[in-house]
Amino acid sequence: MSKKAIIYTSYHHNNTVNLLKDAVNELEYDWYNLLRDKDVKIPINDYETIIFASGIYYSRMHKIMVRFLLENKDELEEKKVLAVITAGKNPSGYAKRVKTHFRNLGILNIHVFSCLAFDTYGPLKLIGGVNKGRPNKGDVSKLTSFLEEHI
Ligand SMILES: Cc1cc2nc3c(=O)[nH]c(=O)nc-3n(C[C@H](O)[C@H](O)[C@H](O)COP(=O)(O)O)c2cc1C
Q1: pLDDT (tens digit, 9 = 90+) per residue, 109-144?
Q2: C-alpha angle 114/119/124, rounded to 5°?
Q3: Least buried of 20, 52, 144, 146, by fewest C-beta within 10 Å?
């Protein structure tokens, strides 16, 4: 079977990684947490399919993810590459930006899934956050369908 990896940055509420864990069979993927496994050399060439997953922080994917993509873009051109992002607002707007980001790196065959998610950043904490309960079961089944379509 072709090998698949999920490379992720997710720390605010683990919204992004938990969404993926609920949507896939965990055992079918090798998981890499870029925020934790800083010194791990990811054998990108071993994988046919890679899902990059990140929360949106200050309007972009995590800067460690951005750096990883820049450093590894040449190896990604020929692969099946997908992105999954979660955000506190306007997920489809961020999906467009993320798609452009990948395309500007030369990763043209990119599909992006975006989802609204719980957010307590900054002043939002004072009101108990927004989008409580998201991602929810509906989001999980949309992601499952998205992955079935594109992998
Ligand atoms: C430091 C920080 C900055 C954020 N900036 C944005 C932003 O610019 N736009 C937005 O929609 N959400 C923003 N959020 C909310 C996150 O995108 C949202 O909670 C996301 O689901 C976090 O993913 P995670 O739990 O996987 O880390 C921000 C959250 C944090 C902690």
Answers
A1: 999 999 999 999 999 999 999 999 999 999 999 999
A2: 140
A3: 144
Q: Which two tokens stand for residue 45?
A: 């060439």
Ligand 1, atom nearest to 94 Cα = 11
Q: Does ligand 1 come within 6 angstroms of the Cβ of 60?
A: no
CATH architecture classification, 4-150: 3-Layer(aba) Sandwich (3.40)
Q: Is 121 in the pocket of ligand 1 (CB under 6 A)?
A: yes
Per-residue pLDDT of 4-24, as tens digits, reads 999 999 999 999 999 999 999
Whether 9 lines ligand 1, by a CB cut-off of 6 Å, is: no
Residue owning the nearest CA to atom 2 of ligand 1: 57
